[in-house]
Amino acid sequence: MLSHSFLATIFLSLSLFRISISKPEFVTTPPLPILPLPSYSQLKWQQREIIMFLHFGVNTFTDSERGTGKENPAIFNPTGLNAAQWVDTAVEAGVSLVILTAKHHDGFCLWPSKYTDHSVIGSPWENGHGDVIQKLVEAAKPRGVDVGLYLSPWDRHDRRYGHDKEYNEFYLAQLQELLNNYGSVREIWFDGAKGMDAPNMSYYFSDWFSMVNELQSSINIFSDAGPNIRWVGNEKGFAGKTCWSTINRSSLSIGNASIEDYLSTGDPKGTDWLPAECDVSIQTGWFWHKSESPKKLSKLLEIYYKSVGRNCLLLLNVPPNTTGLISSHDVQRLREFTTAIDTIFGTNLAEKWYVKASSQRGGKGGGFGPENVLDSDHLWTYWAPRDDQDEDDYWIEFKGTDYGARFNVVRIQEAIGLGQRIKRHEIYVDGDRVASGTTVGYKKLHRLKMGVVHGNSVRIRITESRGVPLVSSVGLHFDPFWHPKGR
Hints:
- It is a single chain.
- By secondary structure, this protein is α/β, with parallel strands linked by helices.
- It has ten helices and 20 strands.
- Helix 7 (205-215) links the parallel strand 4 and strand 5.
- Helix 4 (83-92) crosses helix 5 and helix 6 runs parallel beside helix 7 (205-215).
């Protein structure tokens, strides 16, 4: 028979064993964020990278860029309009959001507004019963493409323009029509464009923005001053070499030309998360013109590197023609552009390389190792160094095979969900510095000035940062379309 002491010992051992196996093993916590932070909608917007603008209206039929407001609605007659073709073009380009000019400065409305007859109601198109916005929504939804709308504040047609109270009531009424009747709108586009000869007019932007947020809570509002997306300050599609998503909204005002440089660079001390959108047209003009051709592929790639590759989103205008279709030469150029981007960035030459770093948060197995920069998550997995390491020597290094790799583009991305941090960085290939820069943000693309390099090791040094840097993704890529001058 077993003694009481022996049984007690066994019971105690089993109890301790149960405690030991049930005790949780805690993982290392993420670092604290650095404010301000993006909203959910802003993060989703940033990940789109390229979206499409559709400038379409009476200007399309008058071969002009800025209508007078005196155009007869009967001139709007796109006999072959096919919104599905617009959406197909977007899908083929990997675009998930299309913004349509619901009303441009001429005041002509692409939907049958109850508040004016200067619209498709007076057009022979579909005997005055057409609705371009509805056509787009119906084509976009089954393809998984989101819709955005531009409602020009400047209206050269409506008699109420120049009378603050009357016009703002009219504008808000049309805004309610658009946001109540066409389902989910993902971006609403406002600008401060106004001719020198325009009547003096005050826009009640605060009222408009409040109404927008009341009607569509997940929408992003674009304007010079946000509140969700800011203009980059030019219509070339370029951001500044330094580009912060943070800025002080209190320093911004809509239609103020003196702040264009500030819009382009942002502010490392900014209290508001307000990322920049770069708008540019695939042709010279914003509306379709028979005499114009699309930009060369090399120009579109330059725009991509200086917009998406500088922490911005690219809004590329691809205007429908008088038939109501996106012209075949624009479709073809857009197809070439998309193929080129896929060719360049479809392969990460560092994917199989060994990676190490100056330090890592939580040590080995802590979940913040440098290997995270080579996975498929470019936002929520990341390399994080220790809090207590030397702030002047953060680095992450990649070692290749005996043969190394040939590349001419280096991609770096930050974990912006925890704030934008990197102020300065340098890139070394086999010990030689090949590039340097300031901000990174969602994505920084370095197209190497010396052209193709052949290397076995790549080190990225973060020389200045707001707190510890958090690098979410790194890529080495070969761009066959990049031919630096003199090389």
